[in-house]
Structure formats: structure tokens, C-alpha cells
Amino acid sequence: MGAIQTVVIRHPLENLAKCSLTPVEARPDTHHWLRFLMSGPGFSFDAEGYTELAVDAPPLTAADRARPILLLDATWRLLPKVRSQVVGKTIKRSMPPGWQTAYPRVSKDGSDPAGGLASIEALFVAQALMGYTDRTLLDAYYWRDAFFGLNADLIP
Questions:
Q1: DSSP string, 44-70
Q2: DSSP 3-state helix, strand, coil percentages of the chain (rounded to 5)?
Q3: Is the residue at 1 inside a domain?
Q4: What is the mean pLDDT of each run of 10 residues along the chain (156 residues)?
Q5: First-residue to last-residue Cα distance in the chain
Q6: Which of 14, 44, 96, 128 has CA atoms 20 to 30 A from the CA of 155?
Q7: What is the per-residue pLDDT for 112?
């Protein structure tokens, strides 16, 4: 099965040099299913009917395959600002239990939720759970091998 249409909305303060999604954004083979938008003053996105990846929500399942995915890319602290610019009713889903991030947590304000994944990890997992397991999505991710090791038993 092919990749599920996905929209990524970034906060304007997201450091693109450090962003785990930047290498995937530059890949020509993802342009047909992966779209990047920047939030900011006056920005609004109608996500009616999208599956929105969220931490505190029912787990994502293959039944969610029929809807496009919405991934909000910001620090945990700034995420509500990006979310406030999304209109329309979304179906919120989280990663099923057991998935672990390989990204080292360094939140100074304790805002990182225990089950949170790095954006590239969340994109990979969501696509894999929908039937599109493309390990090359993580090729430029510094913690790629650690992520695959931590989650070897879960990757379809």
C-alpha cells in the first residue's frame, strides 16, 4: 500500500536545522504524499476529517487508513499555538502503547509527555501502522538505529 496523504504544520520558531523532518521534506519522492505548511499570524488550516496525531488520544489503528494524517511540528510548549490555527473536526489518535522515542529528552520546563515521539518517528510509525513501512524515512535521522532497536518488535 502507498503512503497516506500527510500534512505537517510547523511552528515558525521550529529550528529547521535541527528539525528531524527537514531531510524528508527535501526528498522528491515524498512530495506526492507529504505537504509542509508554516503556521503564523493569519494562518489557518481546515483539517476537517483528518487523523490528527496527538499524545492523549485513542491509539491509531488500520481502521484510520481512510483519512489523511495531520502532524503538528513544534516543541511541546508551543504545540497549543499551532493547534489553535487548525479548524475543522479532526479524529485524534495516538501511537499504540509500547513505541519508544530514541530522541534524547532535554525539556527544561518538563513539557515533554512520556509517550511523545520525535516528529520523524511519529511520521514513520503512523505510516507503518497504515501499511506503508518505509525505513528510508529515517535515513537522515541521527537516532535511527537506536529507534529501530528500541522498537524492533513493533515495526510491521
A1: -EE-TT-EEE-SSSPBP-GGGGGS-EE
A2: 25, 15, 60
A3: no
A4: 93 87 93 96 97 94 94 91 96 95 69 72 96 96 97 95
A5: 13
A6: 14
A7: 45
* 10, 38 Cβ separation under 8 angstroms: yes
Q: Which domain holds residue 53?
A: 6-150
Which value, to the nearest 10 degrees, does the dihedral of the CA atoms of residues 99, 102, 107, 112 take? -10
Query: What is the per-residue pLDDT for 106?
Result: 60
Whether the Cβ atoms of residue 70 and residue 90 lie closer than 8 Å to each other: yes
Residues in a beta bridge with 7: 35, 70
Count: domains in the chain: 1
Identify whether 16 is part of a domain.
Answer: yes
Residue 50, all three cell numbers: 483528518
Determine the Cα–Cα distance for residues 30 and 56; give it in Å rounded to an integer. 28
Q: Are 73 and 121 in contact (CB under 8 A)?
A: no
Give Cα 45 distance to the centre of its chain.
Answer: 16
Please indicate, yes or no, if residue 19 is contained in any of the structural domains.
Answer: yes
Does 156 reside within a domain? no
Rounded Cα distance between 65 and 61, Å, is 8
> Which residues, listed in sequence order, are joined to residue 35 by a DSSP beta bridge?
7
